[in-house]
Amino acid sequence: MRCKECPEPAIIENPQLCQAHFTDYFESKVKKSIDEFGLIERNEKICVAASGGKDSVTLLYILKKFGYDVEAIAIDEGIHGYRDRTLRFLKKFCSENKIRLRIYSYEKEFGKSLDKTVKKGEPACNTCGTLRRHLLNKHSEKYDKVATGHNLDDESQAVLMNLLKAQKKLFSRQGPKTRKIKGFTQKIKPFYFLKEKEIMVYAFIKGLNVPFSECPFARLSYRSKVRDALNKYELIYPGTKENILNKYLSIRSFDNQETNSCTKCGSPCSGLECKACRIQQRIASET
Ligand code: SF4
Ligand SMILES: [Zn+2]
Ligand SMILES: [Zn+2]
């Protein structure tokens, strides 16, 4: 199989490109998203929400390569045998690439790790995701934007999940860049239009050597069922995931954003207290 742009052998089937042309394709797609959606201005200070997985590590690598002022924040949920490993890799990567890394843990911030908060065999992603977003927001105040490694696969799953659960509020919060809301650091997703597989290939070409690991709670999540269903659709109808995102962007509206401030922590929310504070109260009461 030859590259569609030159006589070199292709290293990937779709798009059918050799190593050099795939690298160009990947980097121009990231640049295009940054320019088209106004994700980053040259004078801005960006923090990458880094987990130590391939997406966030590749994002750190490429933003640094493009010359942006970038630092990393990681959240240690306290998931034994998983997060400790990814953070070990992240620390090494950041130190080798001279990227400042700050780590905040559930244990220190909420008094309990995720492993101690959620019973074995129970779904954890709802609690975990809410607390992580809360900490990220709290500790990213001094940055202009928080960049996440969410890719086309993640984002098409999120659109579908919110549709299936009729979560109108969350539905309006997606897209490559969130709207400016007082109390929230703006979130950007430079990999919005890149497939998970493409990020893997780019990370491999660049020799990033990110070890693969999966959170032990992931298979219990609602998302994992949506992911499997969507992957089946993509096989039968190639382009489904990209279509979902394009259709979503064409109908997205910014209605129903939070207008209140949480009476406990001041974060924007729709009721009196935000979800993260309600979860923290539950954790405290169970101690
Ligand atoms: S898969 Fe779920 S439990 Fe694991 S880190 Fe992600 S959100 Fe947290
Ligand atoms: Zn080529
Ligand atoms: Zn709160």
Can you offer a commentary on this structure?
This protein has 287 residues and is an alpha/beta fold. It has 2 domains: 1-26, no CATH class; 37-260, HUPs (Rossmann fold). It is built from 12 helices and 7 strands. Strands 3-2-1-4-5 form a 5-stranded parallel sheet, with helices on both faces. A two-stranded antiparallel sheet has the order 6-7. Helix 1 packs across helix 9 (196-205), helix 7 crosses helix 10 (222-236) and helix 7 (152-164) crosses helix 11. The longest helix is centred in the N-terminal third of the chain and has 18 residues, at 19-36. It is globular, with a radius of gyration of 19 Å. The protein starts with 18 loop residues before the first helix and ends with a helix. The mean pLDDT is 93. One zinc ion is lined by residues 3, 5-6, 8, 17-18, 20-21.
Cα-to-Cα separation, first versus last residue: 60 Å
Helix/strand order, N-terminal first:
HEHEHEHHHEHHEHHHEEH
The description of the largest β-sheet is: 5 strands, parallel
CATH architectural name of the largest domain? 3-Layer(aba) Sandwich
Q: What is the general shape?
A: globular
The low-confidence runs, each spanning 5 or more residues with pLDDT under 50, are none
The CATH topology of the largest domain: Rossmann fold
By secondary-structure content and strand pairing, the structural class works out as: alpha/beta
Overall number of structural domains? 2
**CATH C-level label of the largest domain:** Alpha Beta
The overall pLDDT, averaged over residues, is 93
Specify the number of helices.
Answer: 12
Strand order of the largest sheet: 3-2-1-4-5
Report Rg.
19 Å
